[in-house]
């Protein structure tokens, strides 16, 4: 059973080491190119206790709708500098990009990582207007671990009151290749750096939390080539949330767990179209 669990949740095993390295380099290089000529705000401290930072790209003279994007890396790698490759395309469409950092495992526990990402979302909603953000039109999203963390800003619970949001969680989300019930990771190799117990895994599992509000719209996306655990959890989250809110399932052909995220920089991709539709849905919501 442990070997089966390890295989089901080993995303990196679905690509060769060379391909994995090239895609990680592409994240960084494409992000640098995308932001080179964009107006924005960098190194903004969003959470004083941890000192964690965010960048805002593609703002203008009026407050812009915004994509709040969270990087993956199995909660232990990568950064906001790897996660802005979509910023130039979004800026052309009048959309800002917020890319955030968070403390990495094992030095930072997963409950604390979740707290930090929620603090970043609250910061954007409460103080984003000063950074050129339309704080009522924020779509959250991310890939892999980033999808899990973005989902944690959408689910209900005491946190949204404690953060000063009057209980208002994120209502639009693009969740790509994520894990949403972390209990299987207790028996997977990833627990070497996550140090989860059954209790803490349950605590940070969006699939086990109160679902997003009925007004929410979510796209649960995955690549055609995913490890079995990632595919199954995307299906399970879609099934779990669909009765309560607008939740669409999406499989991106000819993509793997890692390169699918880069589709957000391609104006012709289905992921890019899905993000545009989510941004548009925030406009409808604010006008209603």
TrEMBL record:
Signal peptide range: none
Ranges for domain BD-FAE-like: 62-155
GO molecular function, one term: hydrolase activity
Name of the protein: Putative esterase
Source organism (scientific name): Gordonia malaquae NBRC 108250
UniProt keyword list: Hydrolase
InterPro entries: AB_hydrolase_fold (IPR029058), BD-FAE-like_dom (IPR049492), GDXG_lipolytic_enzyme (IPR050300)
Pfam family, one: BD-FAE
């Amino acid at each position: 059973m442990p070997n089966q669990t390890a295989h089901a949740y080993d995303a990196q095993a679905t690509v060769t080491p060379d391909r994995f390295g090239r895609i990680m380099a592409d994240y960084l290089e494409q992000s640098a190119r995308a932001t080179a000529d964009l107006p924005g705000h960098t190194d903004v401290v969003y959470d004083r206790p941890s000192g964690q930072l965010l960048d805002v790209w593609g703002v203008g003279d009026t407050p812009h709708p915004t994509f709040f994007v969270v990087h993956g890396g199995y909660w232990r790698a990568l950064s906001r500098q790897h996660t802005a490759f979509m910023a130039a395309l979004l800026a052309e469409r009048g959309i800002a990009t917020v890319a955030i950092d968070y403390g990495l495992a094992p030095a930072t526990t997963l409950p604390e990582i979740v707290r930090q990402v929620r603090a970043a979302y609250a910061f954007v909603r409460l103080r984003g207007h000063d950074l050129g953000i339309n704080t009522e039109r924020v779509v959250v999203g991310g890939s892999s671990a980033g999808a899990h963390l973005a989902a944690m800003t959408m689910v209900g619970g005491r946190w949204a009151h404690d953060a000063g949001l009057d209980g208002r969680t994120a209502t639009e989300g693009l969740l790509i290749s994520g894990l949403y019930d972390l209990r299987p990771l207790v028996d997977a190799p990833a627990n070497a750096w996550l140090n989860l117990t059954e209790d803490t895994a349950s605590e940070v599992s969006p699939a086990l939390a109160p679902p997003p509000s009925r007004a929410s719209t979510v796209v649960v996306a995955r690549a055609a080539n995913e490890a079995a655990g990632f595919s199954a959890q995307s299906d399970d989250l879609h099934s779990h949330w669909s009765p309560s809110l607008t939740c669409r399932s999406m499989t991106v052909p000819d993509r793997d767990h890692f390169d699918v995220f880069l589709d957000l920089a391609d104006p012709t991709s289905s992921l890019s179209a899905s993000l545009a539709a989510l941004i548009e849905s925030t406009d409808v919501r604010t006008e209603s």
